[in-house]
UniProtKB/TrEMBL annotation:
It is a multi-pass membrane protein. Residues 882-1125 form the P-type ATPase C-terminal domain. Residues 43-110 form the P-type ATPase N-terminal domain. This is Phospholipid-transporting ATPase.
Length: 1143
């Protein structure tokens, strides 16, 4: 579809930057002095040189998102690396390896540390370099800047200065925070897209001050000067307080004049603006080190004097029989270095690599690819992968998360009359469920005795009637498909279509209803030249649906200026269109706190009107006595719409006389020009004064349909044992019916509704009574659940926002939480964004279990950030939730795969990785301890230094990484078919003490077998053909060969899913060891020492070497084989084959 071309006088437009990064030190004089901290920015317009000196020496426009620079990289990166306790330990060990107490050469300690730290620093440097290149790409962009005498020239963004006048063209990004001075539209309006800042794709209108509109050509800036006083830079994107002094007059500034850096100019040819701103193995290590040092001290004290070869008459400092305590303490350092291999230095790097790969697999999963948007799942952090498999509670937004956030105007109530005959999705689901229930009853009745034929026939008739009713509903839906669909408009009722509303009673109220839809908005119209139809860039999908509905009813919003709205009325006069202009006097914008929007207009007859739309609870509280004529019947219609799962708003108006409006507008102007921290509060209070004594016109009902697959997804998540909470701003009836439609509430589930009556919250003195009432409801509900005898009974808790306010107070929140956690589903209605975050915090801190929050809009950010895991949906409301999240998906249904498949896999992989690290390092490290015991705890190592260096870094690292990346205990299909498998994560079945101690026991057993079996085989047996026995290097190399083969065979047995990569890493690691032994033996004896030609001349030709490896490897893995073989058979005795698949 071709986009409509904006028709406007092509005139240049200008901005002025006025960013100030450092506060003024002197007070400025002026008609509106800035008071208090945080309001001290002072900018000279079109005079950037005045900001070169203090106190106005502001920062440049150069931006940097890098963490390091050339000078700070080395010290800062090293500091980051050695904030880890393990790295500090290995650093101390490396330093001590340079002393005489070290049991082996320094290189075997320094090299692994340098390798691990070097890889991590290289990763940091690469990521920071990428950020630097992105920064330079932005900093070197060109912008048109006023140089002098009305001449504009190009400058890089980084060279723009505070006070410069900047010209920005259509579809360009703003190079700095700018004050809008004029635009290509005569009234100074422009349209901005802020997707880079908050993710919002909707266009936002901005308006220049009327006084700067003549600055519409380059030459007009030749003598332009002025001053700006404004608030200090702060993180808020949506608030701004400041004054603009020009021609000795002061004008208030608000966010509608501010254009933020990195937002984009849209649908406007040019603008001018001014820049204004911008434990476990460690404990084992300590125990055996203490044992070793105590043993050494005992040996020194009691046995060393008898060892003639130690020359006790000339003792060394470390071997002094007269000071065994000193010798034992020195040996403690030796032991801590020697047994340091119990703490795997490569564990951190291995887990980081594994998590990055897991995140990449999440990103590349085609089963979570959304064809409509082209978006894939994205793991924005890899640090929480395993927590995806341990989620206990999901807290979800509704609109845009469970639903599409694409509103369709479906029904309305005008002057007490309900219009709209089409059924909503919830009504269709309810009719389908009713038909299914009746069919079940039919089957039960058909099995009864023939004596009940009459009852049976009665039920048949009832069922038939329902089927006819259902058929009618579905047929209506089919007819809809046959018609040409209008996006945002699914209304069907001939009484209002094609001008037939003129025949209805209360025509004047109907006209007013349609005019409120068309005028009370802040959208931007765009003409599609191919179809001749206007489309709308609205700030919310609801507003867009209202404008489409108004257009279809004959009230087409076609043009907006800074001061007016033009509406084409189709049926005002027979056979011709009438354009009516409504002068916009004031716009009181919608906020989540106000829950309403109002516009004050002057019609063509000079009548001033306030047109208002908002939540029915808010509007009804502001009705006048004479404006409640339709309240009762409208309330009934609203309840029906809520039960049908529709979103509702009430519409009202108020006529104003000139004096009344002038008095109020003076107060509004004072509040608007106020420069204080409470300006927003003042504006809200003044607006509230006007939005009183309203007259009710009617109500709207729009449908936000469920996303595809939501009911099935929620059902699977419930089967996985996850508790699901929905936090929504809808009324209770709407939320309950949506709950049934999406399977959050199911037939047979007992509902617990906790509410507080309006009378309980009116007076302050009744607050305590309301709290007691709520506490009584919670207590009774908890008692009912405890007395429930049916073990399969499920409960659902529904609570509204007013009640939640009391329930979240300190003296009640624990009672509320205790009730909520025993319910399968919880729905919180009419909640604010702050309440969403508070509920999430309560669940997270109160249960101590992993919580996941999922949402799609800015009002969900607090909830997402408060949860352990935040998931953002890249939907209609922009990318704010995504930017605040840890993971992002494009549809709610993908959450099932993210948790049940990837969560389960990631949790089990990481758990198995860590357990295996415990096993292999205990199996290796304890052999050193046993040898110590046989050598009087002398600190002598049985292994060559290079063997020990390569053990964790090379020879056993790749198989464990392949385990963490590729392991699948079951396929994704099985995970989805049996979601109850997910409970292994929340119950922590793969990383509990039983499993950890089991793996540690396996490591202890393997170490005993490796050491003592080799000792028995090689102790006094001839090793070579000449009858020589094995020396220490031969015994050590044989034992190390057994360790490499045993631990790699163990990980092969642990894997239940093989790929060619795993085969390569596991068997390749064993092959790499023998290849290293061969090559290392070829190196000069100066470097290889006792390992010179050890494989070729000593070990290789000896059959006992190869027999020892085979025997020890089999013996080490026998217990694990005995453990898993019974599990390879199902309960009926048939064999179960693990998923040994080769990709």
């Amino acid at each position: 579809m071709a986009r409509g071309r904006i028709r406007a006088r092509l005139r240049r437009s200008h901005f002025h930057p006025f960013s100030c990064m450092r506060p003024r030190t002197e007070d400025d004089e002026g008609p509106h002095p800035i008071e208090g901290p945080g309001y001290s920015r002072f900018v000279h317009c079109n005079q950037p040189r005045m900001h070169w000196k203090k106190p106005l020496k502001y920062c440049s426009n150069y931006i940097s998102t890098t963490k390091y620079n050339v000078v700070t990289f080395l010290p800062k990166a090293l500091f980051e690396q050695f904030r880890r306790v393990a790295n500090i330990y290995f650093l101390l060990a490396a330093i001590l390896s340079l002393t005489p107490v070290a049991p082996f050469s320094a290189v075997s300690m320094i090299f692994p540390l340098a390798f691990v730290v070097g890889i991590s620093m290289a990763k940091e440097a690469l990521e920071d370099w990428r950020r630097f290149m992105q920064d330079m790409k932005v900093n070197t962009r060109k912008a048109s800047v006023h140089v002098a005498d009305g001449v504009f020239g190009h400058k890089p963004w980084q060279k723009i200065q505070v006070g410069d006048v900047v010209k920005v063209e259509k579809d360009q990004f703003f190079p700095a925070d700018l004050l809008l001075l004029s635009s290509s539209y005569e009234d100074g309006i422009c349209y901005v897209e802020t997707m880079n800042l908050d993710g919002e794709t909707n266009l936002k209108p901005k308006r220049a001050l009327e006084v700067t509109l003549p600055l519409d050509e380059d030459e007009t800036f030749k003598d332009f000067t002025g001053t700006i006083k404004c608030e200090d830079p702060n993180p808020s994107l949506y608030t701004f307080i400041g004054n603009f002094e020009y021609d000795r007059q002061v004008y208030p500034l608000d966010p509608s004049q501010i254009l933020l850096r990195d937002s984009k100019l849209r649908n406007t040819t040019f603008v001018y603006g001014l820049w204004y701103s911008l434990v476990l193995t460690a404990n084992l290590l300590l125990v055996i080190s203490l044992i070793s040092s105590i043993g050494f001290a005992v040996k020194i004290k009691f046995q060393m004097p008898d060892w003639w070869y130690m020359q006790p008459s000339k003792p060394e400092n470390l071997y002094d029989p007269t000071s065994p305590g000193k010798s034992g303490l020195a040996h403690l350092i030796t032991a801590l270095i020697l047994y340091g291999y119990l703490i795997p230095i490569s564990l951190y790097v291995s887990i980081e690599v594994v998590k990055v790969c897991q995140a990449k697999f999440i990103d590349e999963d085609l089963n979570m690819y959304d064809e409509e948007t082209g978006n894939t799942a994205q793991a924005r952090t890899s640090n929480l992968n395993e927590e995806l498999g341990q989620v206990d509670t999901i807290l979800s937004d509704k609109t845009g998360t469970l639903t599409c956030n694409q509103m369709d105007f479906l029904k309305c109530s005008i002057a007490g009359t309900a219009y709209g005959v089409r059924s909503s999705e919830v009504e269709l689901a309810a009719a389908k469920q009713m038909a299914m229930d009746l069919e079940e009853q039919d089957v039960e009745i058909s099995n009864c005795s023939r004596d009940k034929n009459r009852a049976h026939n009665s039920w048949e008739n009832s069922s038939g009637a329902s089927e006819i009713e259902l058929e009618t509903v579905i047929t209506s839906k089919d007819e809809k498909d046959q018609k040409s669909a209008i996006k945002g408009f699914s209304f069907e009722d001939n009484r209002l279509m094609d001008g037939n509303w003129l025949k209805e009673p209360n025509t004047d109220v109907i006209i007013l209803f349609f005019r409120i839809l068309a005028v009370c908005q802040s959208a931007v119209p765009e003409l599609n030249e191919e179809t001749g139809i206007f489309t709308y860039e609205a700030e919310s999908p609801d507003e867009g649906a209202f404008l489409v509905a108004a257009r279809e009813f004959g009230f087409e919003f076609c043009k907006r200026t800074q001061s007016s709205v033009i509406v084409r009325e189709k049926y005002a006069r027979p056979g011709q269109l009438v354009e009516r202009e409504f002068k916009i006097l004031n716009l009181l914008e919608f906020t989540s706190k106000r829950k309403r929007m109002s516009v004050i207009v002057r019609d063509e007859d000079g009548q001033i009107l306030l047109l208002c739309k908002g939540a029915d609870s808010i509007i009804f509280d502001r009705l006048s006595k004479n404006g409640r004529m339709y309240e009762e019947v409208t309330t009934k219609h609203l309840n029906e719409y809520g039960e049908a799962g529709l979103r509702t708003l009430a519409l009202a108006y108020k006529k104003l006389n000139e004096s009344e409006y002038d008095a109020w507008n003076n107060e509004f102007t004072k509040a608007k020009t106020s420069i204080s921290a409470d300006r927003d509060g003042m504006l809200e209070r003044v607006a509230d004064m006007m939005e009183r004594e309203l007259i009710l016109v009617g109500a709207t009902a729009v449908e936000d349909k469920l996303q595809k697959g939501v009911p099935q997804c929620i059902d699977k998540l419930a089967q996985a044992g996850l508790k699901i909470w929905v936090l929504t701003g809808d009324k209770m009836e709407t939320a309950i019916n949506i709950g049934f439609a999406c399977s959050l509430l199911r037939q047979g589930m007992k509902q617990i509704c906790v509410t507080v009556t309006n009378s309980d919250t009116i007076a302050q003195d009744s607050k305590q009574a309301a709290k007691e009432n709520i506490l009584n409801q919670i207590t009774n509900a908890s008692r009912m659940i405890n007395l429930e005898k049916d073990p399969h009974a499920a409960f659902a808790l529904i609570i509204d926002g007013k009640t939640l306010t009391f329930a979240l107070e300190d003296d009640m929140k624990q009672h509320f939480l205790e009730l909520a956690v025993v319910c399968a589903s919880v729905i919180c209605c009419r909640v604010s964004p702050k309440q969403k975050a508070l509920v999430t915090r309560l669940v997270k801190e109160g249960t101590g279990r992993t919580t996941l929050a999922i949402g799609d809009g800015a009002n969900d950010v607090g909830m997402i950030q408060e949860a352990d895991i935040g998931v953002g949906i890249s939907g209609v409301e922009g990318m704010q939730a995504v930017m605040a999240s840890d993971f992002s998906i494009s549809q709610f249904r993908f959450l099932e795969r993210l948790l049940v498949v990837h969560g389960h896999w990631c949790y089990k992989r990481i758990a198995q990785m860590i357990c295996y690290f415990f096993y292999k390092n205990i199996a290796f490290g304890l052999t050193l301890f046993y040898f110590e015991a046989f050598t009087a705890f002398s600190g002598q190592s049985i292994y060559d230094d290079w063997y020990m260096l390569l053990f964790n870094v090379v020879l056993t690292s790749l198989p464990v990484i392949s385990l963490g990346v590729f392991e699948q205990d079951v396929s994704s299909e099985v995970c989805l078919q049996f979601p109850a498998l997910y409970q292994q994560g929340p119950k922590n079945l793969f990383f509990d003490w039983y499993r950890i101690l089991g793996w540690m026991g396996n490591g202890l057993y393997s170490s005993l077998v490796i050491f003592f079996l080799n000792l028995v085989i090689l102790f006094d047996q001839p090793f070579r053909a000449g009858g020589q026995t094995a020396d220490m290097s031969a015994v050590g190399t044989t034992m190390f060969s057994c360790i490499i083969c045993a631990v790699n065979c163990q990980i092969a047995l642990t894997m239940s899913h093989f790929t060619w990569i795993q085969h390569l890493f596991v068997w390749g690691s064993i092959a790499a060891w023998f290849l290293f032994l061969l090559l290392y033996g070829m190196v000069s004896p100066i470097y290889s020492g006792n390992a010179y030609h050890i494989l070729v001349e000593a070990l290789g030709p000896a059959p006992i070497y190869w027999c020892s490896i085979i025997l020890v490897t089999v013996a080490c893995n026998l217990p694990y084989l005995a453990h898993i073989i019974p599990k390879m058979y199902t309960s009926n005795g048939s064999p179960y084959y693990p998923r040994n698949q080769v990709l």
